Amino acid sequence: MRSITSLGLSILVATLVITTGIATAEPGHPPRNRETARWLSIGGVLTSAAIAGVGAGMLEYGFMDSRGYDRSFAGVRRTGEVLVGVGAATTLFTPSIGEWYAGQAFSTGMKLRATGIGVGLLGAAIYGASGSSESCVMFDGANYCSGGSPRNVAAASVPVAIGVALYVGGILYDLVDAPSAADRYNARHVEILPAALKTPTGILPGVALGGTF
Predict the structure, then answer these.
(1) Domain ranges across the chain
(2) Nearest CA to 115 among 80, 70, 165?
(3) pLDDT digits (tens, 9 = 90+) for 82-137
C-alpha cells in the first residue's frame, strides 16, 4: 500500500514539475514585459499628438489678431504647418513602438494604417478626376473662361471615410495588442529543461517547461 502511495506521489510531483517548471530566458532573447509594450505604444501616440498640438498652437498664434496678414509671422505659421504634418505622419509608426519592442517589425495596426492611406488616396484621385476647375484663355485681347465641371464629392467621400476608419482603427489595434504581442514573443521562446526535485523517497527526475514569460 505504501509503495502504491509513493508511486502516486511521484507521478503527481512529476506532473507538477512538467507543467510548472522554472521560466528561463533563452540566450539573446530577454523576456518582454506586457506593461512596457503597452506604454511604449501609448507614449508613441502621445508624442505624435504633442508634436501636432504644438504645431496647431503655433498656427493659431500666427493667424489670430490679424497676424495672418503680417509677414513677420510667416515663419511661425510655416513651422506650425511642418509640426502638424510631422505629428500626423509619425502616427503611421509610433503606435507600433510597443509591437517593435515585442519583436514584431510590421504590426497588423501598421498594415491597417498603410491600407487606410491607400484607400484615402484613391478617394482623392476620384475627386480630382471627377471634374475640372475653372480655366481661362486669352483670345484677341479678351479673356474667355470656362466654369469647369463639378467634382463628385459623394463618390470621393466614401473611400476617404473608409481610409480614415482604417487608419484610426490601426492606431487603436496597436494600442490594444501591444501587451499581447509581448506575450506572443515570450511564448515563442520556450525550451524544455531537465529538472530534479527532492521528495521524501529520494530525488525525482523529470522535465521542466522553461522559457521567457
Answers:
(1) 35-184
(2) 165
(3) 999 999 999 999 999 999 999 998 999 999 999 999 999 999 999 888 876 666 66
CA distances from 11 to 23, 106, 191, 198, 210 (A): 22, 45, 22, 13, 20
Neighbour count for residue 1 (Cβ, 10 Å): 5
Residue 169: phi and psi, rounded to 5, are -60, -35
- Parallel/antiparallel/unpaired status of strands 190-199 and 142-146: unpaired
DSSP string, the chain: -HHHHHHHHHHHHHHHHHHT----PPTT-----HHHHHHHHHHHHHHHHHHHHHHHHHHHHHHGGGGGG-GGGHHHHHHHHHHHHHHHHHTTTGGGHHHHHTT-SS-HHHHHHHHHHHHHHHHHHHHHHS----EEEEETTEEEEE------HHHHHHHHHHHHHHHHHHHHHHHHHHHHHHHHHHHHSEEEEEEEEEETTEEEEEEEEEE--
C-alpha neighbours within 13 Å on the C-beta side of residue 169 = 13
pLDDT in tens, 142-172: 666 666 677 788 888 999 999 999 999 999 9
Binning pLDDT at 50, 70 and 90, where does residue 63 land? confident
Whether the Cβ atoms of residue 111 and residue 191 lie closer than 8 Å to each other: no
As a whole number, the mean pLDDT across the chain is: 79
C-alpha cell of 71? 509677414
